[in-house]
Amino acid sequence: MLLGFSGLMAFVVAFVPTVPDGRCGPNAYSQTPAEIAAAVRNNIWSLVVVAALAAGVTAWLKRGTVTRDSSERPTVRSVVVTVVCGAILLGELVLFLALRDRFIALSHDIAAGTMVAGVIAVMVLSALRAEDRHRGAGAGTVYKRIYIAIAVALAAALGTTVLAALTVHGFDHLVLIAEVIVIVLFATYWGVQTKELWDLRAADGLEARPTQGVVE
Fold first, then answer.
1. Does 26 fall in a domain?
2. Is the distance from CB of 6 to CB of 70 less than 8 angstroms?
3. Alpha-carbon torsion 154, 156, 159, 165, what sign?
4. Which UniProt keywords apply (predicted)?
């Protein structure tokens, strides 16, 4: 859920530009406000249509495959996450439909902030479940600490960057530095998680082999 939400916000970040920077003067790549508004309108409508189709196809594919069990109810955490993500998406959609100028002015920053918050939340939730995945083994504690460290590093690095942009005169590379930080630390998280999943697969394979041998 959170990764899907962060991915959707990443599309909004890509489709809605930041505030135009006119310091370089007019050039072949300059766009008027009207051209920017037209591009944003086209991009976001395309995203809305594709997201709606993807949601419909996903629901159709899952139709009849989910076994309903009264004992399996959504946790409070999953309900809260779903409500928060849904509220943000609904707010973005309302801005786009009713207040197009405000959407163009604010949506990039809102989407970028919530995307990063979603990524950090994914790291923290993965850390909280690490020991369960490893059934209490020492490796679960190690991965838990690594995921928490990456999440804290991401939050701290972005916070420091924003603080520098607000307080240091002449600091005008906030977006570029923030994007590099997110890419590097998320890639680190992805690499660590890949290693963890390999370890889990290897452990499951070793546990399964004696049983398979007895059956054969």
1. no
2. no
3. negative
4. Membrane, Transmembrane, Transmembrane helix
- Tokens found for residue 44: 């976001």
Contact 139, 132 (CB under 8 A): no
Read off the pTM: 0.73
The pair of structure tokens assigned to 47 is 């995203």
**Number of folded domains in the chain?**
1
Whether 212 is covered by a domain: the verdict is no
Residue 193 falls within a domain, yes or no?
A: yes
Q: Are 39 and 31 in contact (CB under 8 A)?
A: yes
Residue-wise pLDDT tens digits, 127-153: 888 888 888 667 788 888 999 999 999
Closest CA to 10 of 145, 160, 179: 179
Whether 211 is covered by a domain: the verdict is no
| pLDDT tens sequence across 53-112 | 988 888 888 776 655 554 456 677 777 777 888 888 888 888 888 888 888 887 887 888
